[in-house]
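For consistency, the fold was encoded as tokens, as this record shows:
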Amino acid sequence: MGDAVRYIGVGERRARLGLRQQLAVEARVGTPEEVGEALVALHGSDPATVYLAVGARLVDASVTVPETERALYEDRTLVRMHGMRHTVFAFPTELAAVVHASTGLTVAARERAALIKDMAKAGAPDAAWLKEVEESALAALARRGQATASELTQDEPRLKEQFVYAAGKSYEGVHTVSSRLLRVLGVEGKVVRGRPLGSWMSSQFRWAVAPPHPELDVAEAQAELLRRWLTVCGPATEADLKWWTSWKVSDVRRALTAIRAVAVTVDEGPAYVVEGDDGPVAEPAEPWAALLPGLDPTAMGWQQRDWYLAPALRPALFDRSGNVGPTVWWNGRVVGGWGQRADGEIVWRLLDTEGVGREAEAAIALEAARLRGWVGATWVRPRFRTPLEKELAEATG
């Protein structure tokens, strides 16, 4: 008979989460690059998420804003680009080629085809015209270094061209070539998000030419991305892997075979860890607390979340589209949520008090003060607002 498949229980999974997601105090690091390297991908749909996720994991959170801006916009060691699930993430720049080959190519082909089709239906210029405009816009962007879509139209006026989308439908609208084309170029890995207009909270941004990267074999890139993610998030089920990557099941299984992933079991059923990672993992040295932002990569890391987030908490902590809001954590599980009032105060509420005593409340209060200390006068508003966050943020006194 073969060796028995090892069972990894909830307690050990929470210990792994605290240590590998850099949330336990002993696991915190010194730079945004170290956070990006460990977590693989930081959600970037809401610009604030990148900063708040980094700050929660730094030894010295006071350096969060300048150090993250340095990494994103000066040293370019982190880059914001489209990735899994057609979502914007911040990745280590070294992973750009892996993400593009493993995930972006399929989406990019679909997005370009849709743009050409929509323009043709509207009687707009053809694909050859679009290619000419694209090359001109990329050359202008290279000259400028960074630019908004509006600035690029000064160099390439054809970007202002408009066309009707979904004529006759209830969702009919007018699209500009610039908005659609830049989105396609982003998915294709040709341009990336640059420095925002205004503060680090701003959702208005400039574009920049993407750092050069080699074209990788798709299967090899998928294996590398899966290996990196499973190293920090394992054990994970096949459903978790398929959801996080947005790949077909056949791609997930091929990548698991390529990295020689080890089968284990969790409460949800069969799961996987990377080779050599099926041994026991010790608890963090001390219980830990964390205040994580909306769309944090830990809260959004798995499709099957019952082992760290009780179903009863979801109506208060998620919006209707499935986006998680700001969460309060105690020792590996979500126990509540938080928000920020207009005067800057960080307010939080426990929703699950089981096993949460004075020690936990004191630790959570310290994390709230730590967050307030580095956020300063900035008023953080999640892009995707959730019931509890709105209630806490809008309450007075």
Remarks:
- The two ends are 65 Å apart (CA to CA).
- Residues 94-209 form one domain.
- The chain has a mean pLDDT of 92.
- The longest helix spans residues 96-121.
